[in-house]
Specification:
59 residues; mainly alpha
Length: 59
């Protein structure tokens, strides 16, 4: 199986180009804040989904 270079994969993710633009503008503080929000949202969603999955398994 042929695995494409990581930069091709990353460019296919819609937000990566925007993030790269922000980095180019040296707005790293803003970027870090955005990443923290994104990561915490992902963790929150995965916890919620985990609870849903567990409750559906019990029932």
């Amino acid at each position: 199986m042929h695995i494409p270079p990581s930069h091709i994969f990353l460019s296919s993710v819609p937000q990566i180009p925007q993030i790269m633009e922000v980095v180019k503008k040296n707005e790293t503080r803003f970027l870090l804040r955005q990443n923290c929000l994104l990561i915490s949202l992902v963790i929150y969603m995965s916890r919620k989904d985990g609870k849903k999955i567990r409750s559906s398994i019990k029932s």
